[in-house]
TrEMBL record:
Bias-annotated ranges (Basic and acidic residues): 29-41, 48-60
GO molecular function, one term: calcium ion binding
Keyword terms of this UniProt record: Disulfide bond, EGF-like domain, Glycoprotein, Receptor, Repeat, Signal
The protein's name in its UniProt record: Receptor-type tyrosine- phosphatase epsilon-like isoform X2
InterPro entries assigned to the protein according to its UniProt record, in alphabetical order: EGF (IPR000742), EGF-like_Ca-bd_dom (IPR001881), EGF-type_Asp/Asn_hydroxyl_site (IPR000152), Growth_fac_rcpt_cys_sf (IPR009030), Notch_Cell-Fate_Det (IPR051022)
Classification via Gene3D superfamilies: Laminin
Organism the protein comes from: Paramuricea clavata (Red gorgonian)
Disulfide bridge map: C85-C94, C122-C131, C159-C168, C196-C205
Length: 206
């Protein structure tokens, strides 16, 4: 809005012409109008500040800070997060190692977690940190009192008198020389028979 100033102007008619007097009045009105104008830039700055204050703050994104450790996958849940952990790790942020999760024990061994390490309880026939070494004689493969010897991943049996075979599984009745007085022994499966010399008789030529 432009306010006009009312004033009286005394002009010496003898000194100024009518047109010159009119020019002075118009020039003074123009100056008053310019002084009364508001700066539009100031009004814009106020409006921008009000909009900034009324703008809602952005909600935090929990996964933005990459809270999941050891390769875990983060999922946002409102203002919190959850981690999907890879094999071998657990905890809210996948911070705890689970060594047995990777099944390090071989050949049927049972794994036990010991902090960040593990131990294996091996089945019969195996040994080593991971039950990786076979112990053939551990299963006592030799029968009938035979003595077992480990040969790498295999074994051999030393059989007692009267037995033979890879595991001492075959009885040799004549091995104990059951025939007396010079009798001749013959194996018949798990039994024997004696052929006696002249002058002797009986099952054992006794």
């Amino acid at each position: 809005m432009i306010f006009k100033k009312t004033f009286s102007l005394q002009v010496n008619v003898d000194t100024y012409s009518q047109d010159e007097v009119q020019g002075v009045v118009l020039e003074d009105d123009k100056g008053l109008a310019q002084n009364d104008k508001r700066e539009p830039q100031d009004e814009c700055n106020v409006e921008d500040a009000e909009r900034q204050l009324s703008r809602p703050e952005k909600e935090p994104v929990p996964c933005a800070s990459a809270p999941c450790m050891n390769g875990g996958t983060c999922s946002n849940s409102g203002t919190s997060f959850s981690c999907s952990c890879p094999v071998g790790y657990t905890g809210d942020a996948c911070e705890t190692q689970v060594p047995c999760a990777s099944a390090p024990c071989m050949n049927g061994g049972t794994c036990s977690n010991n902090g960040t390490s593990f131990s294996c309880s091996c089945p019969v026939g195996y040994t080593g940190d991971r039950c990786e070494t076979q112990v053939p004689c551990a299963s006592a493969p030799c029968m009938n009192g035979g003595t077992c010897s480990n040969n790498g991943t295999s074994f051999s049996c030393s059989c007692p008198v009267g037995y033979t075979g890879d595991r001492c599984e075959t009885q040799v009745p004549c091995a104990s020389a059951p025939c007396m007085n010079g009798g001749t022994c013959s194996n018949n499966g798990t039994s024997f028979s004696c052929s006696c010399p002249v002058g002797y008789t009986g099952q054992r030529c006794d």
